[in-house]
Specification:
The complex is a heterodimer. Chain A has a single domain, classed as ABC transporter involved in vitamin B12 uptake, BtuC (Orthogonal Bundle). Chain A has 11 helices and 2 strands. Chain A has helices at 3-36, 43-61, 65-86, 96-118, 143-165, 167-177, 179-184, 189-211, 222-236, 241-261, 267-281; strands at residues 133-136, 139-142. Chain A has a two-stranded antiparallel sheet. In chain A, strand 1 and strand 2 form a beta hairpin. The N and C termini of chain A lie far apart (49 Å). Chain B is mostly helical. Classes of the chains: A mainly alpha, B mainly alpha. Chains A and B meet through helix 4, helix 9 and helix 11 of A and helix 6, helix 12 and helix 14 of B. Chain A: InterPro entries: ABC_transp_permease, BCAA_transport_permease. Chain A: Belongs to the binding-protein-dependent transport system permease family. LivHM subfamily. Chain A: This is Branched-chain amino acid ABC transporter permease. Chain A: It holds the Pfam family BPD_transp_2.
């Protein structure tokens, strides 16, 4: 391969793997929006919570971050379940804007709680594999990034099995399509919504844990990821799960290409610009069909 | 956005006059705590300016820090001798009041473009786009030469304003007081104007308002431009008060969130709500500073949760509701 092609392939591979993680975060947000029409402004902060759970377990118990998934994911699920059950559900059918404000408040409580507990100093873990890369057909791929990409695939496969192979998954899909109709068919939609919020948060937490070997953890790290999750879901169409996956990959590739060929300083801006353009021209998302303007 | 009769809950002029009188007396009573006074007044002014777009036009912006930043950066850049002339080929630095006016103009221009592009979007989509626009502006300021990078800018020595030293805290208090009074005046005028009524109609029922011959996008644009110019004015005063600032404190999302939440916690439905919200949160911030250190937004999180759960119209709305219940029982 000539150096230019090689650089391009390298950049694309990097972008695709990063995009996988964005897809994982966006899937959680999209799942929540699809079922309960709530835009979760605390999504990135739940991701930060995941990072800090893994960091804490690593520092105190020397638990490998990937093993701590077994603890972090259920905690995330429980946290999301409780938040939906005891806070968001109480807003009743008061509008989109009050649930948005409530999740904004939850996000502030989470990020500032982490700040109180862990301090503002960025922290990282030193595991042997954090900096390990291996060569694949002439391109270098970082091991934790590859594991994160594989973890994303696994999580999304599991989610699909859940949605399309289980009774509860059917109830979730029914609630997403028509909450009242589902209720009439004997679905306990309140419970379903709490489960879905729990799942969405668990996805964010898992993404946080997978990112820990790659990034510094600090309490406000989530801010950036909340926005990335929005970009991903808007690109794919709010509530559209396959769209979220595609949106994540697209965002990852746009960022990598922009950072390499234009300027690394504006890495975070490329996605935002695309996001604004899509928002203006196709608010239903690149892959949305009949979603009407809210 | 929220369909609930609001017309009854607008505060009266006298309450505003009393609030202003209390603010005017502050320096004579608490002359030692001028920093608290100036920053609280500025926050109140920002919350009220935000409220013209967020409360009156019902467009929840989480990007107002960008407009504030434009005011602050412009007034400072135009006052620095090495930077001002290079920019526009001017002979030397521009007096701060001219810098302020230029900043307000730039903010109005940005609001026009930004609003024109995004007011077709409704609800959450506008909120998301406002965050995105503000973040892009922040990235430009940090990465381009003119903004002084991550270190930000220093305000140079400023010429005296009518013989008054602009770096005297009492003078700064006067400027902040002027900012709040002007914002309050604009809000009151808006309340009685065609634009004000049109905005309320658009907020309650956009399609209904359109049927009445109101152009919702145009009304929202007008509200955004007014809101943006006032915010930029406040930003200029904030820059003079701070003397040195960095993008980190001035352009980040938390400041935008803080501005919006002060207005919402106090009450979007009233004229004085944002002032009361700002005052309350400033006092809370002061009280909890030792306990929470820099986790000061924690209290905003708790309050906004409490408000969305128990007082959707904000604290002022809560009192009004209690009041009318008492009245009904009599």
């Amino acid at each position: 391969m000539d150096p230019n092609t090689q650089a391009l392939v390298q950049t694309l591979a990097q972008g695709l793997l990063t995009g996988g993680i964005y897809a994982l975060i966006g899937t959680g947000l999209s799942l929540i929006f699809g079922v309960m029409r709530v835009i979760n402004f605390a999504h990135g902060d739940f991701l930060a919570v995941g990072m800090f759970i893994a960091l804490f377990l690593f520092q105190r118990l020397h638990l490998d971050p990937y093993l701590s998934l077994l603890i972090a994911a259920p905690i995330g699920f429980g946290l999301g379940y409780l938040v939906q059950r005891f806070l968001l559900a109480r807003l009743g059918d008061r509008l989109e804007s009050s649930s948005m404000l409530a999740t904004l408040g939850i996000g502030l409580i989470l990020s500032n709680g982490l700040l109180l507990g862990f301090g503002a100093q960025p922290q990282s873990i030193n595991v042997a594999y954090a900096t390990k890369t291996f060569a694949l057909g002439g391109i270098q791929i970082s091991l934790p990034l590859l594991i994160a990409g594989l973890g994303t695939v696994l999580a999304i496969v599991l989610l699909n099995l859940f949605l399309y192979r289980t009774e509860l998954g059917r109830a979730v899909r029914a609630t997403a399509q028509n909450p009242l109709g589902a209720e009439l068919q004997g679905v306990n939609t309140n419970w379903v919504q709490a489960v879905v919020f729990g799942l969405g948060v668990a996805f964010a937490v898992v993404a946080g844990v997978l990112l820990l070997p790659l990034l510094y953890a600090f309490p406000t790290v989530g801010e950036n990821y909340t926005l990335k999750a929005f970009v991903v879901t808007v690109l794919g169409g709010l509530g559209n799960l396959p769209g979220a996956i595609a949106g994540g990959l697209i965002l990852g590739i746009i960022e990598s290409l922009g950072a390499y060929y234009l300027s690394n300083n504006y890495r975070d801006a490329y996605g935002l610009v695309v996001f604004l353009v899509v928002l203006l021209l196709r608010p239903e998302g690149l892959f949305g069909r009949t979603v009407k303007r809210v | 956005m929220i369909s609930r009769p609001r017309a009854l809950t607008y505060g009266n002029v006298w309450l505003s006059v009393i609030l202003l009188a209390v603010m005017a007396l502050y320096p004579f009573v608490f002359g030692k705590a001028m920093n608290f006074g100036v920053s609280t007044l500025l926050l109140a002014g920002f919350a009220m300016s935000w409220n013209i777009l967020g409360g009156w036009a019902g467009q929840l912006s989480l990007g107002h820090a960008a407009l504030l930043g434009i005011g602050a950066y412009t007034v400072t850049l135009f006052a620095i001798p090495e930077r001002a002339p290079a920019w526009l080929g001017l002979a030397g630095p521009v007096a701060p009041w001219w810098g302020t006016l230029i900043g307000m103009g730039l903010a109005a221009l940005l609001a026009l473009v930004w609003g024109w592009l995004t007011f077709g979007l409704r609800g959450s989509y506008f909120v998301l786009s406002s965050i995105a626009v503000a973040l892009i502006i922040r990235l430009v300021v940090i990465n381009e030469d003119f903004g002084g990078g991550a270190e930000g800018l220093f305000m140079p020595d400023l010429p005296k304003l009518f013989g008054l030293d602009l770096f005297d805290r009492k003078v700064e208090y006067g400027l902040a007081f002027f900012f709040v009074a002007l914002t309050l005046l604009v809000t009151h005028m808006l309340r009685r104007s065609r634009l004000g009524y049109a905005l309320q109609a658009v907020r309650e029922d956009e399609d209904g308002a359109r049927a009445l011959g109101i152009d919702p996008r145009r009304m929202k644009l007008a509200a955004f431009v007014i809101s943006a110019m006032l915010t930029a004015l406040g930003g200029s005063i904030y820059a003079i008060y701070l003397q040195a600032f960095e993008p980190h404190t001035l352009l980040e999302l938390p400041l935008s969130v803080q501005i919006a939440l002060m207005a919402i916690i106090g009450g979007r439905s009233s004229i004085q709500g944002p002032i009361i919200g700002a005052l309350l949160l400033a006092i809370f911030g002061e009280v909890f500073r030792n306990i929470f250190a820099n986790a000061n937004l924690l209290i905003y999180g708790v309050l906004i949760l409490a408000v969305t759960l128990f007082a959707p119209d904000g604290l002022v709305g809560l009192f009004k509701r209690r009041g009318s219940k008492l009245g009904a029982n009599r």
